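Fill in residues.
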């Protein structure tokens, strides 16, 4: 459900693009992202930094697209977000002593430090590659194909990556030590 909620602005952008074109879709994406962040704030009374950064990036690039009537700016938005995430994954250990993946999933999983590091680096590579792939599609193909890729390609590749990551995790998850007298 969380993944659907995270992808909701992209879904709305896609639907609005198919219905009314790039500029309506861009405005819808800005409003949807603002509504998403507002909902998170109302519900939890806090918003993660990357959610605020994402909002800032969509407002900046979407605003430039609307103001200058040039879709090139909104096409850069996924790349900027992906590369910001890659930078956050890359710098997390240096800044906090833990990888971003460990910060995110460490409450649910026990893994050796090298596994956390490999997972984190895999996210760096994935996000860097996704940003580059977005630019490749944006500049080599039509806007219609880019919009389809933005939804189906990005979502599909992300799902495959998460699935592969889950397979990798399954091999390395450490079971908590059983307390004496707890066997079933």
């Amino acid at each position: 459900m969380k993944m659907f909620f995270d992808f909701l602005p992209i879904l709305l952008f896609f639907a609005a693009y198919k219905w009314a074109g790039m500029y309506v879709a861009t405005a819808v994406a800005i409003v949807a992202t603002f509504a998403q962040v507002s909902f998170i704030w109302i519900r939890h009374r806090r918003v993660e930094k990357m959610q605020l950064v994402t909002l800032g990036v969509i407002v900046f690039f979407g605003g430039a697209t609307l103001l200058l009537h040039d879709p090139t700016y909104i096409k850069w938005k996924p790349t900027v977000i992906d590369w910001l995430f890659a930078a956050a994954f890359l710098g997390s250990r240096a800044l906090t002593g833990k990888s971003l993946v460990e910060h995110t999933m460490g409450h649910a999983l026990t893994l050796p430090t090298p596994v956390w590091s490999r997972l984190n680096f895999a996210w760096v590579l994935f996000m860097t590659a996704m940003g580059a792939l977005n630019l490749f599609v944006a500049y080599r193909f039509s806007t219609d194909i880019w919009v389809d890729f933005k939804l189906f390609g990005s979502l599909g590749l992300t799902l495959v990556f998460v699935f592969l990551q889950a397979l990798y995790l399954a091999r390395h998850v450490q079971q908590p030590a059983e307390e004496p007298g707890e066997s079933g």
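The radius of gyration is 19 Å.
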